[in-house]
Amino acid sequence: MKIAKIRLVQEPNKSFIVHNEHSPFAPWHHHPEYELVLILKGKGRRMVGDHVDRYEENDLIFTGPFLPHQWICDSERSENNDGLQDEAFVIQFVYDFLGDKFFEIPENTALKKFLSESTRGYEFYGESKRQIISILKRMFSMNDVERLYALFSIFETFQASSEYHFLSSPASVETFLLKGNEPIQRALQYILQNFYRQVQIKELLEITNMSYATFYSSFKRTYTLPFKDYLLNIRIGYACKLLIDETQNISQIAYDCGFENISNFNRQFKRIKNMTPSQFQNQLFLKKQLKKALSITPYHP
Fold first, then answer.
1. What CATH number labels 4-166?
2. Angle between helices 144-160 and 109-116 (to 10 degrees)
3. pLDDT exceeds cutoff 70 at 292
4. pLDDT confidence of 83, banded at 50, 70, 90?
5. Region of poorest pLDDT, from 135-149, 183-197, 259-273
6. pLDDT on residue 298
7. Would the pLDDT of 162 be above 60?
8. What are the structural domain ranges in the chain?
């Protein structure tokens, strides 16, 4: 249950890594490089730090150094994937790949701030996402020099953009970077990879080699929540993503998120979100209708 340290091979005549990744993707791992990941094909579950979400085509994520992450393809868990293969385009670079002064110059102040805060991971959206994806897809047919200057164009979007969400919580980042906190790191990894089934406290005690009292106090001190409440928040958060997608019915979502029955799912969802799953979906529908109505330009003869 240790975090793997997986690094892509960097060719000696290149200053950064451009890689076309095919499924199965790498397991739960980290590395010292910054990483930009564009999903070209496929869908599944994405874990970045302590954040769990769905991903699909054109998902665009940026992670800072040593932030654990994993993409689990739906096709890997399917008995019949019809030969489908997930695919991603990956850019990796270390902080000083352009020399130890590049990100320190005054013109790169905003870019340096962007990189320093990327330890939590970013998910892009909006026009910034469209710009970056457009550049990445053109990089396929570029030579090495053109790719370097294309990366500079991506940096330009990075420093000017506010169209991204933070992924992992600050607490989880500290957990993964803190020496001597490996048992709680292993517990978090296990929770993220198994939240959709019945996770028992005894499993975590075996993984961490802790007593119940020590584990309970250590986990709560790290995440400000008891293990069961933390697990519940992970499940409800993932359920919200599935409800937004509207590709499954509520009963199936409850099952996929680790709830044994729909009544318990409804009760716990309402306790955390102050509304039922059905009300959550209805609220989303009304927002979409309102947005659609506002986007219609009135006709004036």
1. 2.60.120.280
2. 80
3. no
4. low
5. 183-197
6. 52
7. yes
8. 4-166, 178-287
- 26, burial (CB in 10 Å: exposed 0-12, middle 13-18, buried 19+): middle
3-state secondary structure the chain: CCCEECCCCCCCCCCCEEEEEECCCCCCEECCCEEEEEEEECCEEEEECCEEEEECCCCEEEECCCCCEEEEEHHHHCCCCCCCCCEEEEEEECCCECECCHHHCHHHHHHHHHHHHHHHCEEECHHHHHHHHHHHHHHCCCCHHHHHHHHHHHHHHHHHCCCEEECCCHHHHHHHHCCCCHHHHHHHHHHHHHCCCCCCHHHHHHHHCCCHHHHHHHHHHHHCCCHHHHHHHHHHHHHHHHHHHCCCCHHHHHHHCCCCCHHHHHHHHHHHHCCCHHHHHHHHHHHHHHHHHHHCCCCCC
What is the chain's mean pLDDT, rounded?
Answer: 87
CB 192 within 8 A of CB 47: yes
Contact at 8 Å (CB) between 104 and 112? yes
The strand pairing partners of 51, in sequence order, are: 48
Whether the bond between 24 and the residue before it is cis, its omega within 30 degrees of 0, is yes
Q: Does domain 178-287 have CATH number 1.10.10.60?
A: yes
pTM, whole model, 2 decimals? 0.77
Q: What is the pLDDT of residue 11?
A: 79
